[in-house]
Amino acid sequence: MFTERSDILADADPIRGYGLAVTPGRDGPLVFVAGYGEPNRLYSRNDNEFVDTACGIVADGTRHGMGVCAADLDADGCEEVYVHNCAKGVDGGGDPDLLLNRLESERYRWTDVFALDVNTDRLDVRAGRSVTALDRLGTGRYGVAVSGYAAPLAFYELGDDGEITDMAEAVGLEVEGGCRSLLALPSDAGAADIFAGVERGPNHLFQNERGHYDRADGGPDLADPTGDTRGAALVDQGGTTALAVGNDAVPNRLLRRGSDGKFTDVAPPSLREPERVRTVVSADFDNDGREELFYNVLGEPNLLFERDDADGRGDTVSEWRRVDAGPAAEPNGFGTGAVAADLDADGVLELIVVHGEVAAQPLTVYKSDVAGDASWLRIRPTTRHGAPARGAVVRLETTAGVQRRAIDAGGGCLCQTEPVAHFGLGAADPLRVDIRWPDGRERTLTNVLAETELSVRHPSRRSAAITEEQWQRGDSPLRR
Fold first, then answer.
1. Distance CA 246, CA 297 (A)
2. What digits encode the pLDDT tens for the residues 159-202?
């Protein structure tokens, strides 16, 4: 399936890292990698390769980065980057977190919002792992949830004066035990629910009720009290969404939501087999119209699964099978975080893996070697402020069937991928695209063309979509 393409990175220096997040930049995607006890990295595109541009507070080699996510917290149309730092494991934080605000007037100049005078007593020092972005009110202004071990889960919102406030108690977010993963779950109402994966304890489901999160009963399979949750990811199965949960040395889960709101584990034996899973990535790496599942495993080869849709039903789960991951198996790797993103803008996703739980290792990048001539379509929804609409849901109808993607708000454990719905088409033609934003508003596009990337405005803004070519040329008022 994969061939190594780490040459797309300008350096091969080892790093002890954990999370990574992908956010739009002026010249393509920015890839932020959290360094654990060493400088963070911020990769940006320079011609045909990505170079580390981190300096100053962004590099910050004095802290221990874990979870990372990007979101527009101040409604200025540009994403901030939240970095959760944790030096003392489950017993305490040790390092204050970073909330990096990008100043677009000067390329790649950033400030730490926690360092503002108004936040003198707001510095977050806690033990946690993952970070996810939530537009709980559907306004396009995001808050950031931070998992906790010795401290409660936090949920930070940013005021107009730069003041950071922990709203977790006010909005109902409370998790007992060591929370490892956070994942926004699409709902029919628009605003996302939340899955909280717990280490050695029951997982939790929170339902968004007009901006307040109420504890919901997701059923015993979702709670999985004997599990040990690490990574989690949403995976499309013929237009319906399932939740893939990776556990540490206990059976993995593939959870499908029923009409009663409860989840049932439908994982076949091949997918359930216990491994020391860290991160789970769901993406269509070979552009055949069906997502694959990549499990980043500690101390053992990484795992790759694909669906065989030869029967044409499109909605079964028993056809998941393990396939050869090639060099991405990394039998000697100490992988921590991983994401999928189209770094070189050719319509084929790269898999980026960061390492460091045991020792420093270079970042690695992999690409499908069987994508061939398969076609693709990429949809980039934006908020009413022009920032990525994380948490939006995109449904694509093609001549071969239906696919569904959620714009990643936080990729389960440690990481967050690019804010784009990437669809492989195989030999099919796109017919219709439906986008639903976190406020419940919808927009439909027809007559879309294959092998294009469309940036789609929030329905409150005039005109529907612009192409990636227009975006890069600067023809769009959304380009920043």
1. 9
2. 999 999 999 999 999 887 788 899 999 876 667 899 999 988 89
Other beta carbons within 10 angstroms of residue 463's beta carbon come to: 10
> Are residues 6 and 22 in contact, defined by beta-carbon separation less than 8 angstroms?
no
Cβ atoms of 180 and 200 closer than 8 Å: no
**CA–CA separation, 135 vs 156, rounded Å?**
12
Kindly state the percentage of the chain with pLDDT values over 70.
Answer: 91
Q: How far is CA 165 from the centre of its chain?
A: 24
* 240 C-beta neighbours (distance < 10 Å), count: 14
pLDDT level of residue 103 (50, 70, 90 thresholds): confident
Q: What is the pLDDT of residue 412?
A: 82
CA distance 443 to 435: 5
End-to-end, the C-alpha distance of the chain in Å comes to 36
In sequence order, the 6+-apart residues with CB closer than 8 A to the CB of 453 are 345, 377, 378, 379, 380, 420, 467, 468, 471
Residue with tokens 């796109």: 430
